[in-house]
Amino acid sequence: MDLQLTRIFVKVVQNSSFSKAAELLKIPKSTVSKAVTALENNTGTKLLLRTTRSLTLTPAGKAFYDSCVGPIQTLEDAQRSLHGQDSIVSGLIRITAPEDLGSQVIAPTIARLGQTHPALNFELVYTDEVLDLVKEGFDLAVRIGKLTESSLKAKKIGEIVLVPVASPTYLRKKEKIRGPKDLENHDCLTLNDPNLISKWSLKNESKTALLKIKPRISSNQMTSLLNMAIAGGGIALVPKFICRQAIEDGALAYALPGWSSPGLPVHLVSPLSVSSSVKLKMTAELLFTEIRGALNSK
């Protein structure tokens, strides 16, 4: 099998486009199309389903891509190394992550990495949707919650815990909170997620409590709930990493010290092994370290 045909196929999938792959490889689009057709003919296997608007991998095509993308990246990096190590740490890395974790932790981390390696470019897409990393051309994703079974490479970073917080002014004005059940009588600010909008699960070192809340305000964004709590709007159940600074500054206080939600797992996910590329390995390791540090900070 011609290795160049495989390389062209990988570039088409990575870029979800024959035109973009041709531009990247500096060859005519017709050559790219013929290469993929030749690869399918040589293997006797349909790899891509093509329409005028989209490209979709067949099951066989996806399995072949997953097997080839790592070795192709390794060969390209080895070739670049002949011209100096700096050329390896260059190019575009596309990352998707949940909005709050992205803006609070990932954005400043990527900014620092960009200053250290000016030849690196990044595209960050913040969304709570689970995107198809291969189809949409992402190199890395940070995902919160239980992962579904897939061929993606995943590494657990840690866990997010949610804590009930409120402004000191709100807590002084309202009925004193002595235990979890007291929260049911307070103005609750909650994520409009089916698992949180009407019930909160909390635990301490020895007990658990399931609360039926009546949300005063719900939102699809944790940072919004945080800001409403700071403004005295009520008690918000938010990740510890986004409210830590406000608590240190005195703008917020723990409404129920010692109590938090059960942990939600956080994973770093990629379509291929991060060790297959120097730039990917470096970015993944830094993100892992910074996110883990943020999640584990007291």
Automatic annotation (TrEMBL):
Protein name: LysR family transcriptional regulator
Protein family according to the UniProt entry: Belongs to the LysR transcriptional regulatory family.
HTH lysR-type domain sequence ranges: 1-58
SUPFAM superfamilies: Periplasmic binding protein-like II (SSF53850), Winged helix' DNA-binding domain (SSF46785)
Top-level taxon: Bacteria
Organism of origin: Bdellovibrio reynosensis
Keyword annotations of the record: DNA-binding, Transcription, Transcription regulation
InterPro entries registered for this protein in UniProt: LysR-type_TF_proteobact-type (IPR058163), LysR_HTH_N (IPR000847), LysR_subst-bd (IPR005119), WH-like_DNA-bd_sf (IPR036388), WH_DNA-bd_sf (IPR036390)
